[in-house]
TrEMBL record:
Domain Glutamate/phenylalanine/leucine/valine/L-tryptophan dehydrogenase C-terminal stretches: 213-454
Name of the protein: Glutamate dehydrogenase
Assigned protein family: Belongs to the Glu/Leu/Phe/Val dehydrogenases family.
Superkingdom per UniProt: Bacteria
Keywords: NAD, Nucleotide-binding, Oxidoreductase
Statement: the UniProt record of this protein carries the keyword Transmembrane helix: no
Subunit and interaction comment: Homohexamer.
Gene Ontology cellular component list: cytosol
Length: 456
């Protein structure tokens, strides 16, 4: 029988050796390495209490995707020239259900980013309590500056290859950065033509008129705020009167801002890739919606309609604005240690991640060592995939739920996720650390399912 000290040392050596193996096997994939490292840092107490996870090689299996599909996507632009992009689908883990995760169209997309997103998706999906596994896909195609016809031709070509790898009980993609209802619609239409059948459950994030769920568009942003609401409640606080800054001005950001305002907060800043706006009177959400969802414009256009607001080029400066709640909702690693120190010095109370892995490890450490309430991405932004799972359920039953039913279920799911994180953190000796709680709660659910199915 090993002493506690020897057990701890053995587990630490095991996790360190495994991480080094993963880095060696997946060279130059920095985002993937970061996601793995953040997860492993939380799991020492789990393996100390449950050594059978090590004996059965659960982590060795869980950190290797079940399948990776990489393919070319040729398409014709409006000038008649053939363009070629690269497409990806990482089907990471199906222990809890069919692979589920978005499709991202952005020039930064590469295999490392796809693997990190798919790996995170496994545990995010597990936390929702819905029967879905983890996956992610995308392309280095940039929809900015492309015509509607070019986007349609690209989406059709992308789906022509992807169609053979997905299905309602196999893999169910959705939208992500650069992929909204328009792109999902084009992909769904192509899938339907290829399959010769109306399989509504093959994609989520569809338009409400053809199988989409009411409330899906708002779900990630609304869910973010519902999670923040639970964090504040535990401290005897509410959103009323809190000053909020939100990075990004896409789907997650817009609807996080909308729900925050509905619950009495004051949103004073948001951004896009060109810079950020600051409006001390409170951001007009309808104006942001008009600019970003109708006109497909830049956030700088906001000051043309609200001259009292100020636009500043560059994104990082948004974190210098004093606020009570900061919501990084744009992209990975957007909030670094310097920004974290500035937020803390300015008295921020809550940092909750609406985007995937938006804080660097150094920034996360700053938050955990301060009095800031920190909500990790895999828990905070799980509302989108939760409602995607509700869309799948509605598709299977061939029914529609109204907004009250969908939003009510979303609120309950986010409350449940928060409680799971709190309870797991307490059970493993890290009370209040939602980062550790989310990682442990998600991991244990997936690991136990893998053991039960004999995949080991």
């Amino acid at each position: 029988m090993m002493t506690t000290e020897k057990t701890n040392e053995y587990v630490a050596d095991y996790l360190n050796h495994l991480y080094n193996q993963i880095v060696e096997r997946n060279p130059n994939e920095t985002e993937f390495h970061q996601a793995i490292s953040l997860m492993l840092q939380s799991l020492s107490p789990v393996f100390e209490k449950n050594p059978h996870y090590m004996e059965k090689g659960i982590l060795e299996q869980l950190t290797e995707p079940e399948r990776i599909i990489i393919f070319r996507v040729p398409w014709v632009d409006d000038q008649g020239r053939v363009q070629v992009n690269r497409g990806y689908r990482v089907q990471f883990n199906s222990a809890l259900g069919p692979y589920k995760g978005g499709i991202r169209f952005h020039p930064s997309v590469n295999l490392s980013i796809m693997k990190f997103l798919a790996f995170e998706q496994i545990f995010k999906n597990a936390l929702t309590g819905q029967p879905i596994g983890g996956g992610k896909g995308g392309s280095d195609f940039d929809p900015k500056g492309k015509s509607d016809n070019e986007i349609m031709r690209f989406c059709q070509s992308f789906m022509t290859e992807l169609a053979r790898h997905i299905g309602p009980d196999v893999d169910v993609p959705a939208g992500d950065i650069g992929v909204g209802a328009r792109e999902v619609g084009y992909m769904f239409g192509q899938y339907k033509r290829i399959r010769g059948a109306y399989e509504a459950g093959v994609l989520t994030g569809k338009g409400v008129g053809y199988g989409g769920s009411i409330g899906r568009k708002e779900a990630t942003g609304y869910g973010t705020i519902y999670f923040v609401q639970e964090m504040l409640k535990d401290k005897g606080l509410s959103l009323r009167g809190q000053k909020v800054i939100v990075s990004g001005s896409g789907n997650v950001s817009i609807y996080a801002m909308e729900k925050a305002v509905q619950l009495g907060a004051k949103v004073i800043a948001c951004s896009d890739s060109s810079g950020y706006i600051y409006d001390e009177n409170g951001i007009d959400i309808d104006t942001v919606k008009q600019i970003k969802e109708v006109e497909y414009g830049r956030i700088s256009d906001y000051v043309n309609k609200h001259p009292e607001a100020v636009f500043t080029e560059g994104c990082t400066g948004i974190w210098s604005i004093p606020c009570d709640i900061a919501l990084p909702c744009a992209t990975q690693n957007e909030l670094d240690a310097a920004a974290a120190k500035t937020l803390i010095a300015n008295g921020v109370k809550v940092v909750a991640e609406g985007a995937n892995m938006p804080s660097t490890p150094e920034a996360i450490q700053q938050f955990l060592e301060s009095d800031v309430l920190y909500g990790p991405a895999k828990a905070v932004n799980a509302g989108g995939v939760a409602v995607s799972a509700l869309e799948m359920a509605q598709n299977s039953m061939r029914i529609y739920w109204d907004i009250h039913e969908v939003d009510g279920k979303l609120q309950e799911i986010m409350k449940s996720i928060y409680q799971s994180c709190v309870q797991a953190a307490e059970a493993y000796g890290e009370p209040g650390n939602l980062e550790v709680g989310a990682n442990i709660a998600g991991f244990c659910k997936v690991a136990d399912a893998m053991l039960a199915q004999g995949v080991v």
